[in-house]
Amino acid sequence: MGYFWKQRVIRTSTYLLYSLHINACLFYWGSDYEGLGSTKWVYNGKGNAYIRCYYFAVKTLITIGGLPDPTTVFEICFQLINYFVGVFAFSIMIGQMRDVVGAATAGENYYRACMDNTIKYMNSYNIPREVQNRIKTWYDYTWKIQGMLDEQELLIQLPAKMRLDIAVDVNYSIVSKVALFQGCDRQMVFDMLTRLKSVVYLPGDFVCKKGEIGREMYIIKQGEVQVVGGPDLQTVFVTIRAGSVFGEISLLAGGGGNRRTANVKAHGFANLFILDKKDLAEILVHYPESQKLLRKKTKKMLTKDKKPEEKETCKEAAEVIPPRPDTPKLFKAALKVTEQVGIEGTFAKLKKAYKPSEDQKEGPPTISPAPPPSPMHRRSPVPRTLAPDDKDESVAETADSSVIIRMTPRQEGEELLTVEMSAEETKKGVEEKEKKEEEEKK
């Protein structure tokens, strides 16, 4: 029972005792008016007058009974008034006391009712006993530390100004020590305090896991958490204590940077403040300077762990000229076809031009002071007239126009290779190929 409820019990008891005192004084005055010891009903004047009159008042107001019968009209009227006042006054006092005790235990009764309903739900769905014990532990610890299961239920009933005053008095001393928010607008920090939610984690509970979508930032109010890793998540990398903040990278980073980068679990009981990403975004809209500062700090956090690129040991080893691209597959296929049909001329020249590129692919790249000569398509002495629309098309042909090669550019940097051969040249190549095969068989 809290201090406030103890005060109410003491005040109600004081009212009851004072009413008995007034009644005792009135009984002594009535006895003196009738004459001390004149009848059996009045005070006879023996012993301590206040104690005996107070005893009479208690028996009258509480209606215990066992009092001598009044004999005179004055005594009868006095006693009737005493009985009526006693019934109403005592019933009011008892009812007031019951309300005080009931109000004092209302929160605990609510807590017990919530726990009983939760246990009933878990039993109906056959929840494992280990999980049930952890939930019971969470209920007990949360009620012991906070005196309530959810602080927001209390704060939401108050006006915004009072909520801010309470949040500043309770939480500002913790949030002001967070390095991330140092330098930000003071009013922005005040607005953020009203959005914080207090959550209790049990020993061994994972606050967040690596790869999860990060939607909250955590500030440690009480206790400590550990960053763990390894195959069994038992290796402790660092321990974070009260007043520290984590999860801010996932909260402030934009784009695809909203995934958790580490596994964090509670080491013992931990009470954390949680700031939701949506709430922070709504606050920063009104404080652009603080938003720029937080983004700047976030970039530093993202880059401080990256190692600088190692510099090259010598300048001679630097690759000034990139390696020559590989020979196109379509061009290789055309070369192979011409070799099979026995055609010499333009393709043979192009093959010789592209041969250094293939040799370079087979062996390791060598660094030369001067770039090697680029392959060239040699045009035949007899130029082919190009159409006006094909000004970007490359054409090469043999002297007798038996073979014509076209390189037509396409979209996205692709090129189309077209080979045209006369029927006589094709027939001649086929005959030479068959002749060679017959000689090899012989």
From TrEMBL:
Every Cyclic nucleotide-binding domain range: 180-284
Keyword Metal-binding annotated: no
Biased composition (Basic and acidic residues): 424-442
Domain of life: Eukaryota
Membrane topology value: Multi-pass membrane protein
Keywords: Ion channel, Ion transport, Ligand-gated ion channel, Membrane, Transmembrane, Transmembrane helix, Transport
Biased composition (Pro residues): 366-375
Pfam families to which the protein is assigned, alphabetical: cNMP_binding (PF00027)
Subcellular localization(s) per the UniProt record: Membrane
InterPro entries found in the cross-reference section: CNG_cation_channel, cNMP-bd_CS, cNMP-bd_dom, cNMP-bd_dom_sf, RmlC-like_jellyroll
PROSITE patterns, per database record: CNMP_BINDING_1 (PS00888), CNMP_BINDING_2 (PS00889), CNMP_BINDING_3 (PS50042)
Region span, Disordered: 354-442
Keyword Transport among record annotations: yes
Protein name: Cyclic nucleotide gated channel beta 1
Organism ancestry: Eukaryota, Metazoa, Chordata, Craniata, Vertebrata
Gene name for this UniProt entry: CNGB1_1
